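During the no-cost extension, the postdoctoral fellow (Dr. R.K.) reprocessed legacy sequence entries with the updated structure-token encoder. One reprocessed record is reproduced below for audit purposes.
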Amino acid sequence: MPNILIIDDDKLVCEATSILLRSKGYQVTTANDGQSGIDAVRGGGIDLAIVDLFMPDMDGTVVMSILRDVDPTITMIAASGFMFGGRCPEMPGFEAMANEAGAVATLYKPFRPGDVVQAVEQALNVSA
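Re-encoded structure tokens follow.
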């Protein structure tokens, strides 16, 4: 089963998303900051990364760029609570920024379980 890395400074987001994905049979690794996520990818065995775009230590787009350098085959999903339209006021350009950083999908916080599972399944199919 694919190993999914969740990079988010909110430990509750990591924990809840991890529980959900494990219940679907995925292996899950979590990192609470950008550098820990980068280190996890350097360690190998990560198939997909869900990356929070706004973290205090390192911007998520920077993290995604480094992840792409470390592993050009990694598939990534961008996540954040306030930069995409639909649930919160849209801030122009962020979805395009996520796509430019290499995201194949975006997730809105707070996550709906079905949205997470659907995004992960679609992202893994894109990378297959």
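The helical segments are 11-23, 34-42, 60-70, 94-100, 113-127. The chain has a mean pLDDT of 89. The remaining legacy entries will be reprocessed before the final report is submitted.
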